[in-house]
Amino acid sequence: MTEGTGAAHGGGRWYQTYVVTWVWLLLFTVIEIGAVALRLERALLVSLLLVLSLMKAALIVAYFMHLRYERLNLVYLVLTPLILIAALVGGVVPDALNAFHLRR
After folding, report:
1. Distance CA 70, CA 81 (A)
2. What is the C-alpha separation between 79 and 59, in angstroms, rounded?
3. CB 86 within 8 A of CB 51
4. 18 and 32 in contact (C-beta within 8 Å)?
5. Element containing residue 67 per DSSP (H, E)
6. What is the pLDDT of residues 43-100, one digit of tens each?
7. Of 53, 95, 100, residue with least CA distance to 78
8. Which of 39, 45, 89, 103 has the most CB within a 10 Å radius?
């Protein structure tokens, strides 16, 4: 590759975005492992892991799936599974609580 072609691709710095994204993903993963190792309270641990997982999913979708400039698609891709999970949990929890109370 000649010098002219490197300049056309941002001076060879095109990979910097991917490296920075990878570092953020690594940092979030280390925080998740640390939170589990610290044996935090269950509700706090689940909340922290959920938030960090959503942040990681958003980074992956935005940078590795090249949707960072398509904000609406990015929002749909992250929020749709959350809405589906909330609906499924909302449908299962009342039955599970009812079954739990019947066993007592």
Report:
1. 18
2. 14
3. no
4. no
5. none
6. 999 999 999 998 998 899 888 887 777 878 777 877 888 889 888 888 888 887 777 7
7. 53
8. 45
Q: What is the largest CA-CA distance in the chain?
A: 76
Task: State which amino acid sits at residue 43.
Answer: A
CB 52 within 8 A of CB 28: yes
The residue extents of the domains of the chain are 1-68, 70-104
| 32-56 CB burial, b ≥16 within 10 A, e <16 | beebeeeeeeeeeeeebeeebeeeb
Interval 1-56: pLDDT, tens? 454 444 455 555 768 889 999 999 999 999 999 999 999 999 999 999 999 998 99
Query: Of 72, 50, 58, 75, nearest to 21 (Cα)?
Result: 58
Phi–psi pair at 39, nearest 5 degrees? 55, 55
